[in-house]
Design goal:
Layout (H helix, E strand, L loop, with lengths): L1 H4 L5 E5 L3 H12 L3 E5 L3 H8 L10 H10 L3 E4 L2 H6 L3 E4 L14 H13 L4 E5 L7 H12 L4 E5 L9 H6 L3 E5 L3 H10 L6 E5 L1 H32 L3 H9 L20 H16 L6
Parallel strand pairs: 1-2, 1-4, 2-3, 4-5, 5-6, 7-8
Length: about 290
C-alpha cells in the first residue's frame, strides 16, 4: 500500500487555503503530486477552482492556473472526501495569538477532529502550522479518539516569506521534518525528493521548537542592531559600517543586521509571545496562564 501511494504522484490533502496552505498545496502540485486543498469558505473555493488567486504572491496565480489545467490541483469544501482520497494530510490552518498571548490552537484541534472522523486506513498527518511544543501529541490524542487504526503525525514547520513564498518553498534554505516512525520519514523523503535543499530530520518536539527559535533569533538580531544604532548616534559612529563589519564574521552573517524601525509583521510578534509562554509553562514552578 505504501509503495503504491508514494509513487511518482502522491495523493495529498492540504487543510486550509490561507497564505501557507495555498502556497504549499500549489507548489506540491507543481512537483507532480495530486493535491486537494480544503477550506470552509465556499466562495473562496469557487474562485480558486476558476483560477482566481485570493492573495498577492508573485508566481502563485500562474502555478494555480497551470496545475488546475493539468488536473493535479483541486479545491473543495469537503474535508472528509479529501482525507479519504489522500495518504498525506497537511494541517495548514491559522494559529492566531490568543488574548493571553499563547498560540490559539482551536483550528488545529478542529482539523484534527475532522481528520480522525474521516480517516479510513493509514495516513500521515503533517503539522505545517506554526504550533507550540506538544501540538503533535495533542493532534495524535484527538485523532485517536475517533480512529483506532495506524497513523503517523509529523511536524514540518514552514519558513515562507511574503513576496517570495513560492521561491522559498521550491528553493528553501532547509526543510525540517520531525517524525517518530520510519515509515513517516520515508513518506516525507519521497515527497520532498524533487527539492534540492538540505533536509534535516529530527524528533517531533525539536521540529516544533525550531520555527519559534528561528524567529526569536532573527528578532534578536534586529533588536540588537537597533540598540547599536542608538549607541552609534551617541558616539558619532556609522551604524551601516558597523553592521557591515560585524556581518563579515561568518559566524554572524549580515542578514537582519539593518537598523530601522524594529521588527513586526504577522509572524514575529505572535511567535515570540508564544515562545515566552512556552518557556513559562516549562520552566516556572507552576504553569501560568
Amino acid at each position: 500500500m505504501l509503495n503504491i501511494l508514494c509513487g511518482d504522484k502522491m495523493r495529498v490533502a492540504v487543510i486550509g487555503t490561507g497564505y501557507v496552505g495555498l502556497v504549499v498545496g500549489t507548489c506540491l502540485a507543481d512537483l507532480g503530486n495530486n493535491i486537494i486543498c480544503v477550506d470552509i469558505d465556499k466562495e473562496k473555493i469557487e474562485k480558486l477552482n476558476k483560477g482566481i488567486c485570493p492573495i498577492y504572491e508573485p508566481g502563485l496565480p500562474e502555478l494555480i492556473e497551470k496545475n488546475l489545467k493539468a488536473r493535479r490541483l483541486e479545491f473543495t469544501t469537503d474535508l472528509a472526501k479529501a482525507v479519504k482520497n489522500s495518504y498525506v494530510i497537511y494541517i495548514a490552518v491559522g494559529t492566531p495569538q490568543a488574548k493571553n498571548g499563547r498560540a490559539d490552537l482551536r483550528y488545529v484541534r478542529q482539523a484534527a477532529e475532522q481528520i480522525g472522523k474521516a480517516m479510513e486506513g493509514e495516513k500521515v498527518i503533517v503539522n505545517k502550522s506554526t504550533v507550540p511544543v506538544g501540538t503533535a501529541d495533542m493532534v495524535k490524542r484527538i485523532i485517536a479518539k475517533h480512529y483506532k487504526g495506524e497513523f503517523h503525525v509529523v511536524s514540518n514547520p514552514e519558513f515562507l516569506r511574503e513576496g517570495s513564498a513560492v521561491n522559498d518553498f521550491l528553493k528553501p534554505d532547509r526543510i525540517v521534518v520531525g517524525y517518530e516512525s520510519p515509515k513517516a520519514k520515508k513518506v516525507m523523503q519521497q515527497l520532498y525528493k524533487p527539492i534540492k535543499a538540505r533536509k534535516f530530520y529530527t524528533d517531533v518536539k525539536s521540529a516544533e521548537l525550531i520555527k519559534y527559535a528561528s524567529n526569536a533569533f532573527l528578532a534578536t538580531k534586529i533588536s540588537f542592531i537597533n540598540e547599536i544604532a542608538m549607541l552609534c548616534d551617541k558616539v558619532g559612529a556609522n551604524v551601516k559600517d558597523v553592521a557591515v563589519g560585524v556581518g563579515l564574521d561568518k559566524r554572524i552573517n549580515p542578514h537582519f543586521l539593518r537598523a530601522g524601525c524594529g521588527w513586526g509583521g504577522s509572524c514575529f510578534p505572535k511567535d515570540i509571545t508564544a515562545l515566552i509562554h512556552i518557556c513559562l509553562l516549562y520552566t516556572s514552578p507552576s504553569p501560568r496562564d
